[in-house]
Amino acid sequence: xxxxxxxxxxxxxxxxxxxxxxxxxxxxxxxxxxxxxxxxxxxxxxxxxxxxxxxxxxxxxxxxxxxxxxxxxxxxxxxxxxxxxxxxxxxxxxxxxxxxxxxxxxxxxxxxxxxxxxxxxxxxxxxxxxxxxxxxxxxxxxxxxxxxxxxxxxxxxxxxxxxxxxxxxxxxxxxxxxxxxxxxxxxxxxxxxxxxxxxxxxxxxxxxxxxxxxxxxxxxxxxxxxxxxxxxxxxxxxxxxxxxxxxxxxxxxxxxxxxxxxxxxxxxxxxxxxxxxxxxxxxxxxxxxxxxxxxxxxxxxxxxxxxxxxxxxxxxxxxxxxxxxxxxxxxxxxxxxxxxxxxxxxxxxxxxxxxxxxxxxxxxxxxxxxxxxxx
Length: 375
Hints:
isomerase, about 25% strand, 2 domains, 9-stranded mixed sheet, 8-stranded parallel sheet, single chain, TIM Barrel, alpha/beta, Ala_racemase_N, Ala_racemase_pyridoxalP-BS, about 375 residues, EC 5.1.1.1, Alanine racemase
């Protein structure tokens, strides 16, 4: 049966990207970030492919994501970093998940969940993103408490880390400033007696564009999926990353319309001349951004076709420019671009957003299909 709409993920592309990134950042290790269902690609299949290609770690945001990976059979090093007060850490600790502490309260909650073996804990410091992590003022107290718990055998501090705000702009002064703060934080931790297994600061763009930020481990998310983490930077665009995701649909209908006909809700587009239009059965209920209305393009029968009118919940209309492809014809919303089809980056630019959002939000009623290897 032909899929109405599907996300096709090339796991060989994921493996290629992971190997390329691993080679690039050596001797630093590589963590592949698979949060948010693997950036929409499928957390479990992508995680397996990343492991097969040599990823040293996987990274997720929530405890639920970590436990889902463990339930699927993943046994490698795995870091989780986003929790709220009252989280149940017991299952994650039993599953040998490394968890992250930002505060004394969080550290003590983790310690309280320990039973028969020490919890593997990583400490995060806020070096200037002003998001998660201990403030510089609170950092000495956090590392002192961590050392106390480590000495008691309650936890093992396996890592210290932070996150860069402006790594896609290599000339931004925040990069140098954050790296300096991170080095100072490491010195404070060392003085307190901590000797973590890994230290990490760089995300995809930092790993590629700023070698000094690699430390012992880098965290690559977007780049592992073959998308450019710093569009416009020659060093990222020339790296040879291969986009892993294609979003496809089956043309439901094609028909002629006359000059003056309005298309979709509100008639935000009106045909200037007689033309033909096609109905693509995917809409904002499936994660197609409403901002793509009258902006983005799809690929049908060897040509780009612009979206006309507003994106609806279940469907979009495209201009076929007088042609009438048969219902059932393949539609590519975005893909690798190798055959001329739009890319996720082009959709992001059309919607005035980033490719991260395009690939993570697409889904809904799309089926997932994996090529390159069985998931």
